[in-house]
Write a structure and sequence with these properties.
2 domains; about 130 residues
């Protein structure tokens, strides 16, 4: 018990004097490009893992603008093809009385969504 107490006291005295590691998330980038930190990072507060937009921005040499998501995916070599019909409900028709018919549920294709999900899960990111 005495050893534990002595170690605790020793660490309490020594730890505040250990050098801190520098941070790598720099808010001046956010100021320079005019966008919040969450534009390039998965965390809205910045720091940590970069989103595809942040990865593409770094790949381009940290220019003064952050590429859009579409541009970022092209820069990173990600080819995403979608069919809008997979996600858009058909236009509702009218009933015999002229009233609009109830809207159909959103059209989705489960297999395509699962294939996209699997690709996203396999993507290594940074």
């Amino acid at each position: 018990m005495k050893k534990f107490f002595a170690i605790t006291i020793l660490l309490t005295i020594i730890v505040p004097f250990l050098p801190a590691t520098p941070t790598v998330a720099l808010p001046e980038y956010s100021t320079r490009v005019g966008e919040p930190c969450g534009s390039c990072h998965t965390s809205a507060a910045g720091g940590g893992l970069r989103s595809p937009r942040g990865q593409a921005w770094v790949a381009q040499g940290k220019l003064n603008t952050v590429p859009t998501m579409d541009e970022s995916l092209k820069i990173l070599g990600v080819k995403v093809t979608t069919d809008p019909a997979d996600y858009i409900a058909p236009t509702p028709s009218t009933t015999a009385q002229g009233a609009p018919a109830p809207a159909a549920p959103l059209a989705t294709r489960y297999e395509r969504k699962m294939m996209l999900l699997m690709r996203l899960l396999e993507y290594g990111g940074n």
